[in-house]
Amino acid sequence: MTAATTARRSRITPERAAELYGAVLDLLREVGYDALTMDAVAARTRSSKATLYRQWGGKAELVAKAVRHCKPGGSADEIDTGSLRGDLHAFVLRSDDCEMEQNSALMRGLAMAIHDSPDLLQAFREHLIEPETAEFRRILHRAVARGEVRADSPAMDYVVHMMVGALAARTLIDERPPTQAFLLSYIDAVVLPALGAPTT
Questions:
Q1: What gap in Å lies between CA 127 and CA 44, rounded to an integer?
Q2: pTM of the predicted model, to two decimals?
C-alpha cells in the first residue's frame, strides 16, 4: 500500500468509523447481508458511496470489520489471570448475556452468506477467525508455559472448534441463546477436561 493510499484511507476518524460500523450492523439485522447495499449504508450514515469504497473496498470487507469492531474490547495479551481456567472465563466474561444474544443472532444471519460468498468468507477469516484463533493460541501457550497443559495435548488444536460448537449448539439444541453461565460451565465440563487442565 502506498503512502498516498494510506493517507487517503485514514481520513475517517475512529469515532466516525465506529458510527459507520454500528449503522452497518443495524442494517444487517434489518435486511440481512444479501439485501444490504453500499448505497443503503451511504444513505443511513450520510456518507458518499465513493468514500465507503475508498475506505473499505467493498461490502464484504466493511461487514467483516464492522462485526470485528463491535466484538468485546481487549486482547488475550490483556487477559492473564494466572490460570487457564481464569483466562478462559475472563475471555467469556468480556460479553454480557445481551451482547451474546445479539452477536449470536447476527452470526446466524451471516452464516449462509459466508457459505455463499467467497469474498465475505475471506474477509471473516482475515478479520475475525484468524485473530480470535491467535488469541486462543496465546492463552493456551501461556497455560503450557505454566505447566497446566501438555504441549502435545491432542485437544490443543480444537479449542476454537469446541467454543464455536458450543455457541451454535446452544441455540440449535436448547433453543436458547448462549449465556455467560452456559459458556462458563461448558469450559469447566468440556474444554478444560479435554485439555487435561485443572477445573478449579
A1: 24
A2: 0.79
Question: Contact, 97 vs 180, CB < 8 A?
Answer: yes
CATH code for 3-68?
1.10.357.10
Give me the sign of the Cα torsion angle 166, 171, 174, 176.
Answer: positive
The whole-number pLDDT of residue 144 equals 96
Is the confidence at residue 10, as pLDDT, over 70?
no
The single-letter code of the amino acid at 155 is A
The residues, any chain, with a CB within 8 Å of residue 164's CB and separated by 6 or more, are: none
Q: Phi first, then psi: what are they for 143, rounded to 5°? A: -65, -40
Which of 100, 109, 93, 125 is closest to 26 using CA atoms? 109
User: Could you report the per-residue pLDDT of 34-50, keeping only the tens digit for each?
Assistant: 999 999 999 999 999 99
Q: How many CB atoms lie within 10 A of CB 13?
A: 9
Fold of 72-195: Tetracycline Repressor; domain 2 (1.10.357)
Query: What is the rounded distance in angstroms from the CA atom of residue 24 to the CA atom of residue 110?
Result: 13
Q: 466516525: which residue's cell?
A: 16
| 138-122-74 Cα angle (round to 5) | 35
- Alpha-carbon gap, residue 162 to 77, rounded angstroms: 21
Interval 91-140: pLDDT, tens: 999 888 888 888 888 888 788 888 889 999 999 999 988 988 898 899 99
